[in-house]
TrEMBL record:
Residues 132-174 are annotated as: Disordered. Residues 23-125 form the Phytocyanin domain. Keywords: Disulfide bond, Glycoprotein, Signal. GO terms for molecular function: electron transfer activity. Residues 137-174 have a biased composition (Low complexity). The keyword Disulfide bond applies. InterPro entries: Cupredoxin, Phytocyanin-like, Phytocyanin_dom. It holds the Pfam family Cu_bind_like. Residues 1-22 form the signal peptide. This is Phytocyanin domain-containing protein. One of its GO terms (cellular component) is plasma membrane.
């Protein structure tokens, strides 16, 4: 019985160590999710950030004045708001990144997207952070990520269908370390320390 307790405790501690280190991003930081003054604002905001599976994007905005639509690359590039993969209208919208590859978000209100209220990121596998690279800016003036890829799938676990309002959340697949230690290095050190206790 003591062996089972030790194993369960060990697994809970390892899971907690992995999940605790997921990064939470407030999209646009203090500017939040709004029609920006600079059409490149969200591209610049994402540049140098590494978005990983398990991280969370939080879109804060004024209800009724903005929304968040998950769209395809083509819809992102053309600000096509007619058939989003998912549409959330009640702030704050929280999206846990659970698939790798490019992800595209726009505001469907008025011409907000055409004025730069759109975000393209590239999500990489969970693991340690070693610097920037999650969103690779394209050439000057570009609003799409240089990293190629296929059309993203909508976030799994979406709780709000297109055309409805509400906050969307998904279940994190894993987390990562946001410190100078990479997540893998931290996890190995943590597991070694916990194993030494048993």
């Amino acid at each position: 019985m003591a062996g089972v307790f030790k194993t369960v405790t060990f697994l809970v501690l390892v899971f907690a160590a992995v999940v605790v280190f997921a990064e939470d991003y407030d999209v646009g930081d203090d500017t939040e999710w709004t029609r920006p003054m600079d059409a490149q604002f969200y591209t610049t905001w994402a540049a140098g950030k590494t978005f990983r599976v398990g991280d969370e994007l939080e879109f804060d905005f004024a209800a009724g004045r903005h929304d968040v639509a998950v769209v395809t690359k083509d819809a992102y590039e053309n600000c096509d708001k007619e058939k989003p993969l998912s549409l959330m209208t009640t702030p704050p919208v929280k999206i846990i990144l659970n698939t790798t590859g490019p992800q595209y978000y726009i505001c469907t209100v008025g011409d907000h997207c055409r004025f730069g209220q759109k975000l393209a990121i590239n999500v990489v596998a969970a693991g340690g952070r070693t610097g920037g690279g999650g969103a690779t800016p394209g050439p000057a003036g570009s609003t799409t990520p240089a990293a190629g890829g296929t059309t993203p799938t909508p976030p799994a676990g979406t709780t709000t269908p297109p055309g409805s309002s509400g906050t969307t959340t998904t279940t994190p697949a894993a987390g990562n370390a946001a410190s100078s230690l990479s997540g893998a290095t931290f996890l190995v050190a943590f597991v070694s320390a916990v194993a030494a206790l048993f």
